[in-house]
């Protein structure tokens, strides 16, 4: 499975739009859920995630492996959420302890990755078994 995703990253790096669409389809929903930890407005979350994925597409030549891509996507999404909250002068979650924030951020990523893997497994089941 990792070989397949690494091929997708290599294909995206070469400008393959179908490979990017596959990555987009896999990560868009989980990044939307991730962004909803910061922002309640679902439409704003969707816009932020689309922007984050577009930023990746524009910088696709900089990435060789999926771990760097995932890290980049989550970080850009988080930063765009925080920038939105700051711009709108809304309450930014209080991350008094950086360690606590980092731990929560990591836990959210693990939760979203688990969700993505389970969703993919369910999609591969025959219709009656879903």
What does the model show?
The protein has 130 residues and is mainly alpha-helical. The chain contains 5 helices and no strands. Helix 2 runs antiparallel to helix 3 (42-58) and helix 2 crosses helix 5 (98-124). It starts with a helix and ends in a 6-residue tail after the last helix. The relative contact order is 0.12. Mean pLDDT is 81; it is low at 96-100.
Order of H and E elements: HHHHH
What fraction strand? under 5%
* Rounded radius of gyration (Å): 16 Å
* Termini separation: 21 Å
Oligomerization state of this entry? single chain
Query: Number of helical segments?
Result: 5
Q: In which range does the helix fraction lie?
A: over 70%
């Amino acid at each position: 499975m990792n070989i397949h995703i690494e091929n997708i990253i290599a294909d995206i790096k070469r400008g393959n739009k179908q490979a990017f669409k596959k990555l987009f389809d896999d990560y868009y929903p989980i990044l939307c859920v991730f962004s909803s930890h910061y922002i309640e407005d679902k439409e704003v979350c969707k816009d932020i995630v689309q922007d984050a994925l577009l930023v990746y597409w524009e910088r696709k030549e900089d990435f060789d492996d999926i771990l760097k891509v995932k890290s980049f996507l989550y970080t850009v999404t988080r930063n765009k959420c925080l920038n939105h909250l700051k711009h709108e002068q809304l309450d930014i979650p209080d991350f008094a302890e950086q360690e606590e924030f980092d731990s929560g951020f990591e836990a959210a990523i693990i939760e979203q990755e688990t969700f993505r893997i389970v969703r993919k497994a369910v999609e591969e089941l025959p219709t009656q078994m879903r």
